Amino acid sequence: MELNELKQAFLQAYDKEATHAFFSPGRVNLIGEHTDYNGGHVFPCALSFGTWLMAAPNDDQVMRFRSLNIPDVVTLELDCLTTPLPDKSWVNYPLGCLAQFVKKGVEVKQGYDLLFYGNVPPGAGLSSSAALEVVTAYAFNVLLGTGYDRTQLALIGQASEHEFAGVNCGIMDQFASAQGKKDHAIDLDCATLQFELVPVKLDGIKVVIANTHSPHHLDSGAYNDRVRQCGEALREIRLLLNRPDLKDLASLSQEDFQSIEDKMTDPIARKRARHVVGEVRRTQDAIAALKEGNIARMGELMNQSHVSLRDDYEVTGPELDALAEAAWQVPGVVGSRMTGGGFGGCTVSLVREEAIPTFIEEVGKAYTAKTGLKADFYIAEISDGARQL
Ligand code: GLA
Question: Which of these, 34, 69, 146, 147, is most buried using a 10 Å CB contact count?
Answer without folding.
Answer: 34
